[in-house]
Amino acid sequence: MTKKIQDASVIVDGGYQPATVVLKKGVPAHLSFKRISEKGCLDTVVLPDFGIKEKLPLNQEKVFTIDTRIPGEHQFSCGMNMFHGKVVIK
Ligand SMILES: [Cu+2]
Question: What Pfam families does this protein's entry cite (predicted)?
């Protein structure tokens, strides 16, 4: 039996679009961030609940594998904790 993978993507353009990503619990997920502007200080994304702190190259998709076993709201932010979004797992 193969497990499906769910995909979600966020555009980073002076903020996060969308700022809320909903994922289904227990289904492996790929979450991508694509930064398309130099606005703000969004060149780093931090997802503390998943141990992720990574640079976002301009105009390139950066894909993270998200552990969806833990339901709830998981915040993400820019490197300076000024811009925010969240991953909701349910
Ligand atoms: Cu910032």
Answer: Cupredoxin_1 (PF13473)
Structure tokens at 59: 């105009």
Domain 6-89 grouped into CATH 2.60.40.420: yes
Q: Find residue 74's DSSP bridge partners.
A: 87
Instruction: Using the mean position of ligand 1's atoms as its centre, give its distance from the Cα of residue 42 in Å.
Output: 6
Q: How far is the CA of 35 from the centre of ligand 1 (A)?
A: 13
Tell me how far the alpha carbon of residue 29 lies from the centroid of ligand 1, in angstroms. Answer: 25
Instruction: Name the residue ranges covered by the structural domains of the chain.
Output: 6-89
Quick: pLDDT tens for 29-84. Answer: 999 999 999 987 899 999 999 999 999 999 999 999 999 999 999 999 999 999 99
Q: How far apart are CA 2 and CA 32, in angstroms?
A: 22
